[in-house]
Amino acid sequence: MKLQYLGDARDAFKWDLMHWTCTKSSPRFDQLVYVPMLTPDKKETNEGKTPDDWFDCRAFIRPFVVSLREEPRSLERISALGSVEQDEPSFKVSLFNPARYLESGNKRTDYWAGFAPDKCENSVVFFDPDIGFETKTQHGPKWILHAEVKRFLALLPMTSVAVVYQHKPHRSWSDLFSDFKTSLSYVHTAVAAYEGNLAFVAVAGNAFAGRRVNGAFEGYANGHGVVSHSVIKNGFA
Known about the structure:
This protein is of the alpha/beta class. The chain has a single domain, classed as Rossmann fold, CATH 3.40.50. It contains 6 helices and 9 strands; from the N terminus they run αβαβαβββαβαββαβ. The chain has a 7-stranded mixed β-sheet, with helices on both faces. A two-stranded parallel ribbon has the order 4-5. β1, α2 and β2 (92-95) form a beta-alpha-beta unit. α1 packs across α6. It is globular, with a radius of gyration of 16 Å.
């Protein structure tokens, strides 16, 4: 995640889906825990400049996304997501390490100090790396490691789920999701909501949480023509 990403098309999809997942799951989630996994901005790049209106998010999400572009850009503005829809009960939004970069080696271990998944009751814990899940050759700060997700998921309360941002690799989504069936062997349930360039992969450690997030992702895809829903690992049946 880079601050220069704030307020572009990927945020329109990202925050619309996160709001939907928290409020439309049955039962609802009480909290969104955002882990930005922040990395330094590039000095000269067009990243983060894709207009937010390229993605057809719900109308009340649009002003929120636009607000994220205000300078100086700040992740703290994301905390307002839980109360943007006045016709629905709000949910709490908390941010973990919003001002610290994710690095490698011992500094990566230090980054996670203080993160307490066991205290995230009835929550959606959203990990937002630059790229997504690690591959065999990519273990740096742009990826989240399977060992990390496995450890965090084992500690999450049974009422909670984890969601991981996944940028599209140079291959088909179906091929990637097929690989996930093996690499995500440690999860009970894995489902995805995705469009042409990015996906959000939800993982749960039990059938109850799996059913909740699968229903939310499927409902969101059904209401958004450019978004698809895929069950990667069916543990909720």
